[in-house]
Write a structure and sequence with these properties.
By secondary structure, the protein is mainly β. The protein is built from nine helices and 25 strands. The chain has a domain of 329 residues.
Length: 489
Amino acid sequence: MNLNKFKKYFFIIFAVLFSGILSAQDSQTLYYMNRVPQSTLMNPAMQPTCNFFLGLPVVSSIQLDAGNNRLALTDVIMKHPTEDSLITFLHPDAEFNTEDFLSKLDENNFFYEDFRTDLLSFGFRVNSWYFSFNLSEKLSTSINYPKDLMVIALQGNQDFINQSADLSYFGVNSTFYREYGLGISKQINPNLSVGIRAKVLFGHANITSDFDNNALSMYTSRDSIYLNANAIVNTSSPMIATTNADGDFDGFEVPSYIENSETDSLIDLALAHNNMGLGIDVGIFYKPIDRLSVSLSVIDLGYIKWDKEYVTNIELNGNYAFKGIDVSNEIGNSNSDTDPFEEMTDSLMNSFTVSNTASSYTTTLGAKVYIGANYAVSKKFDVGFLSRSYFYNSNLNQAFTFSANVRPINGLSASLTYSIMNGAYNNIGFGLVLGGAPFQIYVISDNASAALWGHKTTSFNFRFGFNIAFGCRQKSKSKDTPLLKSVFY
């Protein structure tokens, strides 16, 4: 079989099936930590306690998220039954219950990973107005896979006799982009604030499956397996698409300036403002009665249009009927120069065509809706509830968080949270803010409990940063008070 042909089919299969979330997910715990200026990223109506902040370049906000909707670490990695080593669930010696594994899956499942860093950020208050700016780099990747795929992989196709397994929602969405955000919050009165953040986006690279037009299926009869594919993968990157003599897609080449590490060209690439998009965040913060506040925000409503100049649209089409392999001519014939398995592979590859075009396309950000309620037990202690609805790739990911937040002394605040998310109920998180003016450091995680029982967790996130802030100090009104009262009241 031609190696180049194999490579191009492998790329399509890899892109559609295995490439490794969409818009980044902010930490739930951050929402009610209003001493951290970055909390406005989750609701632009909120106004931080500091009158001015400047985020240190790159390190002012670094966030990492990874996880999936159903599986814990011990579902895929386990201890070898007789040796001192770790193995995956696919290892032949794994003590693995297939039925139990499959029962944990939804009809449509996903993995995700997100990374975010702020290259520049600052904010300041002018009377009842608060203005903020952020220049951020974001990388978000998600993989969708249907339960039918895992059933076929682990149990074979006996459950699909005379019926089709639908694999259409098998795909990937990965986006690397830059965000310029300008936020404005207005305190209309002591009980009501509204806010908006306008964002200009520039895409660096993208690979995404066209879920609306993809058709991947496998039909099994008593004596044959029928494969049908009509899959589209859109890509945008500096890579150069190549074609063969027939004009079909043949793979990608690395540009010479990247391969040769040409500094000027790489700098131009990093600073390029191609693939423009727009986004918007809106929020409201309201206190209906004394001590109680409710809030609502919609984050990451937006899109990126990927320019034709950098786009490769790859389309895989074809049908294949597998009726078994005839090895009768190979039995007892050591001189045979044919390989039935290679012939079958060639036949499979020849049944599908891979074409490429260069048409611009548009991807959307993963919109999130936050609904929160907070009750101030005292000036130093409050409790809160937060609901997050995350929409992407025709999926809805729901999460709920309960929080307790305390500000015992100037320069110290802490939060303890419990979250239900990604099919797991063991997410205990924390947030810690040290310092105020002029230096502030914060550390936040929604599931710090992963350090204790990480083998049972379905996700992980971590956020930290350094800020320079002014106008944060609050004068104490009492002295020589009991410890418990001074901490919580």
